[in-house]
Amino acid sequence: MSIETPAVTAGPFAHERVSISRTMGLVMLALLPATLFGFWQFGWPAIHLFIATVLAALLAEAMSLRVAGKPVRPYLMDGSALLTGWLLAMSLPPWAPWWIGVVGSFLAIVVAKQVFGGIGQNLFNPAMVARVALLIAFPLEMTSFVAPTPLFSAGAPGLVEGLAITFGGQGFDAFSGATVLGHVRTELGQGEALSTILPGLYAPVSGAIGTVAGSLGETSALLILLGGLFLLYKRIITWHIPLVMLGTIALLATLMHLYDPEHYTGALYHLVSGATLLGAFFIATDLVTSPVSTRGQILFGAGCGLLVYVIRTWTGYPEGVAFAILLMNACTPLIDHYVKPRIYGRDRKGAPIEYADGAGANQ
Amino acid sequence: MKLFKIRGGVHPDDRKHLAAGQSIEILPMPALLHIPLQQHIGAPASPAVRRGQHVAKGDRLANGQGVISAPVHAPTSGRVMGVGSYPAHHASGLSVPTITLKPDGEDRWGDSIQGVADPFALDPDEIAARVAAAGVVGLGGATFPAAVKLNLRKKYRLHTLVINGAECEPYLTCDDRLMRERAEAVIDGIRIMAHALGVERVVIGIENNKPEAQASMVVAASAYPSIRLARLPTRYPMGSEKHLVQTLTGRETPARGLTADIGVVVHNPATAFAVHEALRFGYPLVSRVVTISGGAIAQPRNLQAPLGTRIQDLIDYCGGFREEPARLISGGPMMGQPLPSTRVPTVKGSNGVLALTAAETNQRDPMPCIRCGSCVQACPCGLVPLEMAAHARTGDLEGAVKLGLMDCIGCGSCSYVCPGHIPLVQFFNYAKGEMAARGRVKQKQAETKRLAEQRTARIEEIKRAKREAMDRRRREAAAKKQAEADPPAPATITEQPVAAGTEA
C-alpha cells in the first residue's frame, strides 16, 4: 500500500519530533539489555543465531519490497523488519540451528507481513506467527533448550565452536536442559505434585534475573521489565495492555493456586517464567496488531492474560504466550469495530448529550 | 477555581518567546490598503462607496447583508481608488471583491464618530446594535459576527461569559500582549458584553504560559467580583471553545450544538477590546493586533495594523525574512492556513502571520499507518482519526461521517503526533468539503424538485379553473336557451362570479 501524497494545504504546519523509525528504534533500544544478557548467558551460538535471523529478516523485507514494486530504501529503513527479526530471535532457543532463524524470518516477513500488504497491514504479529509456525513444524529444534553457559566461562563454546553449533548442525546434548515451564508441565503430567517438582528447579530470584534455561532473550524478567518501563516512559506504549495482561495472569494463577497449591503454581512463577514479560511489554503491545482505543486495549490485555494462563495450564503446550497473542490479534479488528472512545458531546450510543436540567436551552 | 479535565490534546513547542517580549507597535500607515468586503463568516458586505470618493477614518465602506454579516469601515481617511477585486487572504489566493483605499496621511476620524458615556445604561439590544454597526467580529480567528453572539440571550438561558484568552496556538502572542498592555480596556469590553448578555458570571481563561497576562488581568478585574480568572494548563487545543467551556464547567457541549446550549457564551479578549472601542469611543473595527513571527522573520513583532495592510508591509516592518521561509501561514501553525503570497491583505481574522523554516514545519513524506493509536490518544473529541482517514482516503465519505467526521473540530492534534506524518486533517477537510458539496447538490435537487412540483400544480390549477369556467359558461348558455324557450321568469339578474385563481 502506498499513500498518495496530496499537496498539503491543511495544517498543522508543525510536527512532533516523531517518526516510525524512531518508534522502532526506541523499541529496539528497550530490548537491548535483555538481548545483551542473552548473548552473555548463551554465548556465541546465540549471537550467531541472532545475526542470521536479523539478516534474513532484512533480506526477506528487501526482496518483498522489490517484488511489490515499492521503494526499498525508505521502507527498509523504517526499522520494522529489523525489529521483527530481533523479536523472533529473542524467542528462539538460543542454540537452534541457523536455518530455524532464517526460515522463521522469511515466514514472519513474507507470510505474516508482506503478503498482508506490508507495514501496518498485518493482522498478526509477524514474529509470533513465525514462532508458532516453527514450533509446530520443527518441535524438536524449537524445544531444545540449553542450560546457561555464560560467555567465556569454562565449557562455554568459543567463536568457532559456536559457528559449528549454529551453522554446522553439531548436536549439543551435553548442554541440553528444559525450560522451567516445560519441566513442570511434564512432571505435572506424570502426576507429581508441585511440592516435589519445584524445589531445586525453580526459584523466583533466578527466574527474575534470568539465569535459567529458556529462549534467547526471554529469560531475564527484570531486564525485560526494565525495557518495558522505558517504553512506558517514552510513551511508545501505554500501561493498559501490559498491566491488564499481567494482572489477569496473576489473578488467575493466585486463585487457582489457592484452590489447589499442589497442582497450580502461583502468580510469581507465571510472571517471571517463559515469555510472559516479553509478551506483555513487547509483543502484545505491538502497535499494528493491538486495538487502538484504551478500552479496547484493556479488553485485549485481559484476553491475552486469560489465554496465556489457560494454554499453559490445561493444554498440551507448556508455553502459551505466542498462541494467546495470536488469538487476540485475530480479535483486534472486532474489538476496534465495537469498542470505540466516546465522542465529545455524545453519549456512548452516539446521541447528542442531554442534560437533565435543560442546561442553557430556553424552556 | 476548580478546573475539569479534557481528554486528548498535545503539547507542541509553543515558540511564544519569539514575539512575546515585543510590545504592541502601531504600524506606520501603508501606502495603499486593500479592504476585502468579506472578512467575516456569513454574507459578504455590499459596497457603499464609489471610486474616487473621499472617506474619513471609520466611514462605512460597505454594508452588512442579512442577519449574519458585518459592515466594513475605512481604516483611515483617504480616497477610494477602486471597488474591484484583489487576491483574498485565503489559501486559494482567488480574487475577491475588495475596496482599495489610498490613505491621505491625515488619519482623520469621521465627524459622526461618537462614543457612549455610560454603556451600562444602554439596553442590551442597543449594545448589540452598536457592536454590529461597528463591524466587530470574533477576533480569535473564527470571525463570527460578535453582535449575533451577543443576541444569544434571546434564545438561551445564559449564565456565564467565558473570555477565551487561552491562545493555545504556538507562536501567537497578540492576545497575550493585548491583555498585558490594555487590560483595563479589555476588562471594560468584557463588562459591556456581560451586561449585553445579561450574565452574572464572567470567567477569563488564560493558559499558564502567559503569567504576565494573567497578572495584569487580575489587577484590572480586581474591582469586579463577578469576573474571575482561570489559570489554564498549557495544552493544545485548550482554546477550542467547547473544550475551554468543558475545562471551566465540566460540561460537554452537546454534539452539533453551541456552548449556549449549556448556558455559556465565549468571546475573545481582542473582541472585548473592540467592543470597548466601539461603545466608549464609537470606533468601528478598523485595525487589529497581528503577531508576525516564525523562525524566518528577522524581528518578530506584535503590530497593530490597519485592516487591508498587505502582509508584505507587515513583514517589511519586521525586517523582512531572515531566510527563505518554507511556509507562510495565516494564523497559528496548528490550524492556520497557508498564504499564497505576501500580497494579500490583513483582515479582521488575522491574528498572526508566520514565516516558518523547514526545521520548524518538520514536514516529511507520509508513511503507511502503523495503527499506533497516537491519534486516538491525542484526539480531544474522542474520535478514531486513523479509521476516519482510511475511509476518507478510499472515498467512503459516508463511512467517515458515521465514525464522527462531523464532530471533528479540525484541531490537527492527530496529524501533529502521527509518526507516519500522515496528513490526517487534509483527509478530513477534503471529506468535509466534499460532504458539504454533496449536501448543496442534494439541496439544490430538492429545491428544483419542489419548484417543478409547484409549477405542475399551478398549471393543473389553471387548467382546472379554465375547465370549470368553460363548464359554467356552457351551463349558463344552456340555462339561457332554456329560459328563452320557457316563459321569462321574474327579472332576477344573477351576478356572474369572477373565476378566481386563473391568473398564474
Describe the structure.
The complex is a heterodimer of chains A (about 375) and B (about 500). With about 375 residues, chain A is an all-alpha fold. Chain A has a single domain, classed as Ammonium transporter fold (Orthogonal Bundle), CATH 1.10.3430. Chain A contains 16 helices and two strands. In chain A, strands 1-2 form a two-stranded antiparallel sheet. Chain A is globular and about 80 Å long. Residues about 1-5 of chain A have low confidence and may be disordered. Chain B is an alpha/beta fold. Helices cover about 35% and strands about 15% of the residues of chain B. Chain B has helices spanning about 15-20, 125-135, 145-150, 175-180, 185-195, 210-220, 240-250, 270-280, 310-315, 360, 375-380, 385-395, 395-400, 415, 425-485; strands at about 25, 35, 45, 55, 60-65, 70-75, 80-85, 95-105, 160-165, 200-205, 225-230, 265, 285-295, 300-305, 325-330, 335-340, 350-355. In chain B, the strands form four sheets. A six-stranded mixed beta sheet of chain B has the order 1-14-13-17-15-16. Chain B has a four-stranded antiparallel beta sheet with strand order 2-8-7-4, with no helix packed on it. Chain B has a four-stranded parallel beta sheet with strand order 11-10-9-12, sandwiched between helices. In chain B, strand 7 (about 80-85) and strand 8 (about 95-105) form a beta hairpin. The longest helix of chain B is centred in the last third of the chain and has 62 residues, at about 425-485.
